[in-house]
Amino acid sequence: MPENDRNNKFKMIGKQSILFHNPPYIIGASSIAGKKEGEGPLGHLFDTVWEDPLLGQDTWEDAESEFMRQAAEKAIQKAGLSSNDIRYLLAGDLLAQLIASSFGVAELNIPFFGLFGACSTMGEALSIGSILIDGGFADKVLAVTSSHFAGAEKQFRFPLDYGNQRPYSASWTVTGSGAVVLSDQNSNSNGPSIRIKGITTGKIVDYGIKDTMNMGAAMAPAACDTIKTHLEDLNLKPDYYDKIITGDLGYVGSDILIDLLREYKIDVSSNHMDCGKEIFDPESQDTHAGGSGCACSAITFTGYVLKQLREGNWKRVLFLPTGSLHSKVSYNEGNTMPAIAHAVVVEAE
């Protein structure tokens, strides 16, 4: 076997995992948030908090595109680069045909891959971006995703003007956008380097859930499957990680995840963290089951998780955004809500 082929084979670990030979560096990250998110426990960590959810635009969809544009430009700026330095841009959102992404980043004039993993899209973008860099197909990659409460409610549930009541199991779609610049070279001379050491790509898991007001229940089985597979592929125990961070299971989904994993004798109760539980204050903010949406894990990761790694509070985390892969068409036709979760190993060194 040629040397390159043999090396590539050894990158594949177990059923679904990859360990990179040249792990990419995270050299820039940004978090742009809405007013409600800025009022939450993590609000002081975000780069920008906007009081106006429309950002001066005419529609919620245009506003989400503007959130994404600002996050992308901010991450590139913080990396000390220009858009011309970025080889590929990987982006996605919740809107039909990824219109927040395609309209939001078009003017950056960067070669573009549009991704859909629902609320797991940041994990998918970081995974594919890391593969491109480790494989020598890119030197700089921008991963970005977004969501908007009003746009998501209009598409998947009810327009805001309808004024419907929301059950306790319902989550609150986060308004904002998070972006990460990956590089084959480290440009951070202050503090530890942060690298993506590996990934476990999730499978589609469907437990037959049909209730869009209970996203946590739909996504928890996918998170369980990916965590279980990741630990088996790499022969690890949960305490190998300082934190196992799911995307937006919220309070309902997090409890289900812990119970499901215990059936496999895997206990993550001591080091599990969920972005949907962290981003809002359950006492002062009426968000019921917590946060959701592509931006939930994205801005929690870029605003909070990376800060903990840079400051040495955590050494190693498993970042696991989760997503429900239904659409308004599939939901209205009575289909179930299949889900997926992508795991990303992020380490400070």
Polypeptide structure, described:
The protein is of the alpha/beta class. The protein folds into two domains: 181 residues, 3-Layer(aba) Sandwich (Peroxisomal Thiolase, Chain A, domain 1), CATH 3.40.47.40; 155 residues, Peroxisomal Thiolase, Chain A, domain 1 (3-Layer(aba) Sandwich). It is 34% helix and 21% strand. The strands form four sheets. The chain has a seven-stranded mixed β-sheet. Helix 2 links the parallel strand 3 and strand 4. Helix 7 packs across helix 8. It is globular, with a radius of gyration of 19 Å. The N terminus is likely disordered.
Q: Notable features of this structure?
A:
alpha/beta; 2 domains; disordered N terminus; 34% helix; Peroxisomal Thiolase, Chain A, domain 1; 349 residues; single chain; six-stranded mixed β-sheet; seven-stranded mixed β-sheet; 21% strand
**How is the CATH topology of the largest domain named?**
Peroxisomal Thiolase, Chain A, domain 1
Identify the strand order in the major beta sheet: 1-2-10-17-14-11-12
Radius of gyration: 19 Å
Number of helices: 11
Identify low-pLDDT runs.
1-6
CATH class of the largest domain: Alpha Beta
CATH architecture of the largest domain: 3-Layer(aba) Sandwich
Total separate domains: 2
Percent helix: 25-40%
- Mean of pLDDT: 91
Number of strands: 17
Q: What does the overall shape look like? A: globular
Summarize the main sheet: 7 strands, mixed
Give the full name of the CATH homologous superfamily of the largest domain.
Answer: Stage V sporulation protein AD
Secondary-structure element pattern, one letter each: HEEEHEHEHEHEHEEEHEHEHEHEEHEE
Q: Tell me what portion of residues adopts beta-strand conformation.
A: 15-25%
Distance from N terminus to C terminus (CA atoms, Å) equals 33 Å
Category by helix and strand content:
alpha/beta
